[in-house]
Design a protein that fits this description.
alpha+beta; Nuclear Transport Factor 2, Chain: A; 2 domains; five-stranded antiparallel β-sheet; 3 helices
């Protein structure tokens, strides 16, 4: 009886070690940088082009590109007025600016909104 109990204990310890290894080795959440790279890769090509234009300092195709984004909705981290700037992401087939935007912060962070500021994904 004692011998069967010791094998059961060994089996439990091994299963626990395997489970911990799976959790810490494979199921670990993405780092913020990994998550941002993944989100950037999922952006529409037009958003990536807008980011390239921001990085180059222009030129920008829309008159309102680069205006202050006030963050009235409070969906981005709170910063002083003038911290954020907004840029239009071209929407194929749209006659207007459409709903898609990139918002950049002075610290280099960038957010993408596909729904005119109702939600954001951090991409940098």
């Amino acid at each position: 009886m004692r011998r069967g109990l010791s094998w059961a204990l060994v089996a439990l310890v091994l299963l626990g070690a395997i489970g911990a290894g799976l959790y810490y080795g494979f199921a670990r959440p993405d780092s913020p940088a990994d998550a941002q790279r993944r989100e950037y890769a999922r952006l529409p090509d037009e958003a990536k082009e807008t980011i390239r234009r921001i990085d180059r300092g222009g030129p920008f195709p829309y008159r309102r590109d680069g205006v202050t984004f006030a963050n009235r909705e409070g969906r981005l981290p709170r910063k002083q007025r003038g911290y954020y700037r907004e840029y239009t992401v071209k929407t194929p087939g749209s006659r207007s600016r459409g709903a898609r935007r990139i918002v950049s912060g002075r610290g280099g962070e960038m957010y993408y909104s596909a729904d005119h500021y109702r939600s954001f994904v951090r991409v940098r």
